[in-house]
Amino acid sequence: MSGRHAAPATGTAPAAEGPDLKRRAITIGLVLIAAVLTYLAATAYVPRWWSQRIGHAVNGQMSTGTLLGFCFGFVFTIVPLGLLWITMRRQMSWKMRVFWLALAVILAAPNLMTLGVAAGGGGGAHAGQRTMDVDAPMFRGATGVGTAFALVVFVVMVIVYRRRGRAPKAPSQASA
């Protein structure tokens, strides 16, 4: 009776590690399979859905497609870039950095979905391209122009901000 209780428990037995590792490997495998299936479903569905939403907003008008595309390209590029730039300049935990990175990706989602339609090679992207050609003319091109303009504005703002910190200081009266 005392022989069974003589040794104190010092952790998990080697036999318990086998099933735990097996369960973990199965879980990781299932998560990867679910991620791949979600990706495949999204590449088929999201470009079609996005092009239909934009098509309804633009309603076949070239001027509306141009204005809406430029605004989407500009706003949904400069806001995420600014958020990332501010986030990377501050001290914070890695969890907060991941949160702000996820928020930046969410804010850039309209541009990413438009890019998926414009540059995608699947059936969903091709269907989205045809929908945008008819219902949202000029939107894809104007989004690209707005994105490029936002990148230029962002780079100029960063350069001005950095030079402002290095500007030569006015000589003080004490040295005169």
Q: What is the CA-CA span between the terminal residues?
A: 94 Å
Overall shape: it is flat
Strand composition percent:
under 5%
Main sheet: strands, sense, barrel: none
Low-confidence stretches: none
- Helix and strand pattern: HHHHHH
Total E-strand runs: 0
Structure, described:
The chain is mainly alpha-helical. It has one domain. It is built from six helices and no strands. It has helices at residues 14-58, 62-89, 94-107, 109-119, 123-135, 139-166. The radius of gyration is 27 Å and the shape is flat. It starts with 13 loop residues before the first helix and ends in a 10-residue tail after the last helix. The mean pLDDT is 88.
Helix/strand layout:
Elements: H1 14-58, H2 62-89, H3 94-107, H4 109-119, H5 123-135, H6 139-166
Helix pairs in contact: 1-4, 1-5, 2-3, 2-6, 4-5
In short:
The protein has 176 residues and is mainly alpha-helical. Helix content is 79%, strand content 0%. The termini are far apart.
Brief descriptors of the model:
single chain, 176 residues, mainly alpha, 6 helices, 79% helix, Permease, membrane
